[in-house]
Amino acid sequence: YASMPEYNQTGFSTYYATTCRECAAGCGLILRTFEGRAIKAEGNPNHPVNRGKLCQRGLTSVQGLYNPDRIREPRKAAGRGSGNFIDIAWDEALNTVSNLLGGDPKSVAFLMGYQPDHLYDLVKEITDAMGAPAPVRYGALGMFEARATLIEAMRQITGQAGLPFFDLGNADLVFSFGANFLETWLSPLAYSRGYGNLRQGTPGKRGYLVSFEARQSVTSSVADEWIPLIPGSEGVVAAAIGRLIAEINGQAIPTAFATVDLAQAVEQSGVSEEKLHHLAYLFARAEKPLALPGGAALSHTTGLMTARAILALNAIKESSLIRLAAADDSAASLQDVQALVNRMNQGEIHTLFIHSLNPVFELPAALGFSDALKKVKAIVSFAAFPDETSVLSDWTLPDHTGLESFGYQRVLTGSDRPALSALQPVVVPLYNTRATADVLLEAARMRGGALAAAAAYQDEVDFIQQKIRPYIGAGGFYTAPEILTFWSSWLQYGGWWKAQPEPIQVDLKRALEESLPVAAPVSIGRDKFRFHTYPTQMGDGSGANRPWLQETPDPMTTVMWNSWIEIHPETAAKLGLRDDDVVKVSSSAGELEASVYLYPAIRPDTVAIPFGQGHTALGRFAEARGANPAALFEVQMNEVGDLAYGDLQVSITPTGKRRPLARYESREGVYGDHAG
Amino acid sequence: MAEQEAKKWGLVIDLDRCSGCQACVTACSMENNIPFTGEDEVAYGRGMHWIRVQRYWTGAYPDVKPDRTPAMCQQCGNAPCEPVCPVFASVHSEEEQINLQVYNRCIGTRYCANNCPYIARNFNWFDYEIPAPMNYYLNPDVTVRRRGVMEKCTFCVQRIKHGEDVAAAQGRALEDGEVMTACQQACPTDAIVFGDLSDPNSRASQLARSERGYHLLEELGTLPRVTYLKGGGYYGG
Prior knowledge:
Keywords (chain B): 4Fe-4S, Iron, Iron-sulfur, Metal-binding
GO molecular function (chain B): 4 iron, 4 sulfur cluster binding; metal ion binding
Protein name (chain B): Fe-S-cluster-containing hydrogenase components 1
Oligomer: heterodimer
Number of domains of chain B: 1
Largest sheet of chain A: 7 strands, mixed
Organism (chain B): Longilinea arvoryzae
Largest sheet of chain B: 4 strands, mixed
Domain 4Fe-4S ferredoxin-type (chain B): 9-39, 64-96
Low-confidence stretches of chain B: none
Number of strands of chain A: 27
CATH architecture of chain B: 2-Layer Sandwich
CATH topology of the largest domain in chain A: Dimethylsulfoxide Reductase, domain 2
Shape of chain B: globular
């Protein structure tokens, strides 16, 4: 340099394309690295899911990679739950896993998260070869969006099980029934992009958004109309609107809406008849309307019927905006997890492997997972962080974090074309961690026999290469004569997808043809409040150890570093509560304490607590901060076996204590007030 | 000091697209080595966010909704923070025509912050610890500030410089859209557009001319460089 640039260091950055592992959406990342360090996560501009955009969780993934509290060595517990661990060598770890895989196959269980997909596929092959039960796939985000219910509703209506993709960007009217698609629902970046286009994507035409939910979420907060209906009445409202649309259009009333009683719908939902007529008119008049079945609507005992009623609303206007990108029904319901817990309790599970899931934190405490763990002889956690489950495990064999890993993630929803997203390490693994796929392959090889035959892959990369081989000739935007050339493009672009949109349109007609008995919402108990909870930027709670996720203000309350309970100001006045007063919240299942936030945008009969805080482990940034609403959930399920958390009712008792929340909107506090 | 040259970097923020999700806040922090301060400090208003999403509740239940404005340094053409700095730490950069903070001049009088009508400036009250190995992700293009200095949004000047260097090395002019600020790059709804406002054909210029456009506290004569596009209100028109 003749003249050194004023602001820049000399040296070049290297950019790697990979896939975000903070949730299961499978967004493409470009990681900027500099001298072997991962500097910044950015969106992959070519990726069909996020097109260069990125949310808070993805942006802070480097704070996961470089988290000071990571597990650095494989270790075993010196007495389960004692909190003391002894570092072990990987040879010992491999021997252990190999021995455990050799036990009675029926007594071996795998519990996994929604990502990464390649590991799920490998484990499925291994369990099939062993004759063990298939891995159970679950997680808090799926629990809150009632994944299994949505998949089952699609199966019943279209015959194909899978998560639908809703083309928001090309709609002109969106009815969102409890779908907080701007924060966490299914594929938040794909739907946020869609939202931007809904508003300003078509010159001269601004899409209109109506949101139905008891507590105003970020999505409702930008909606043109927010309808705070009685939670659990979403299906009733959808069916009533459906019937009115048929009437407006002069159509025969479809079977699905035949039993609708308008007066009853008004009473059950708290939405006026005038409003229902107005909404039906909006929907009937729209050219490309869309109705979204969100988690808050499906998480009631009548969730499946609600999902069908909302999807039927799309059918009545013959929507072409709903597509099935990929069939996949690997998401388990809470019922499946409960079956596993029952087997654990009966002593049928000798070995439990856990990956990408923190069941002790994420599952309803009332499910009794922690107690059931005591009946399991050997627990192996592959967690990279000392989470609540890994500290109760016998062995923690840390996997690499997402940014140090190979893999792939199927794009189930969020893309207008078939896509498979690629993961590759952007830095050399920091610590003595090992890819779980490699651990399992090696352990299976050591076992020999059928297991070794099933695991006849050299290593994780070989497994991935064999799995993506069919994509060479599948008409993607690049191709190659053989796998290694294909592999280099795969890594360079961060995955494989088609050059053009290729929708698998679904026919929802059947939703209209069958009768739909939508039941009334549960009535509210004396001195009780309806309880709502929702995942935030902390995702399934694993984000709580990222300091910048903690210090990014919540979009609605601007609270940072803690959790709070949202109470309508009128309700709070009746209870004699002010901002920052601490209340005890109790359900039949448990109780917790939280500071009050006077929230003007919630039904007066409803209270809400965000999900993601209240960790007792997970490192310095997460621990002893806020409360975990999973303590309150009763094990009550809908028809598909998803948690009916929307039907939960709680009582509120003032404690007389006060603990100020750190909020961006006001500055209050005394040093030490936020401790503990 | 008022502007002399024509080159004008500017931001346009479309509030009709903005969902208020805060991805811009996180993106800015990760790009610009902004320290996290912890619950106590941030409760006192000593958080270091260079961009914040202002949120005011409007209306009464059930017609209540938050009114949101992502706000950062408006890079005033006529900046109130500049003339009050006794040591010329708050200066107008001649080259990029934006307002910059010279950290090694700053002596921490905080006059600039007092005089900023947009509350866009943050003061480092402490040296904030970023525990190892978390310091690995620090951006080598951005100075790590220490206790006692003022800081604020720079329109990602390191990215402007980098873009200009790359274009100069290839012997061409900088293209519109080539330089993206971190907030724009992350914005999930594509609400933020950065560009050269002196080029009437740049995307930012075109958007800034929209009839929905307005500036924050325009009447103060600060010549803000951030244009907001009003949200909501009409349908099908």
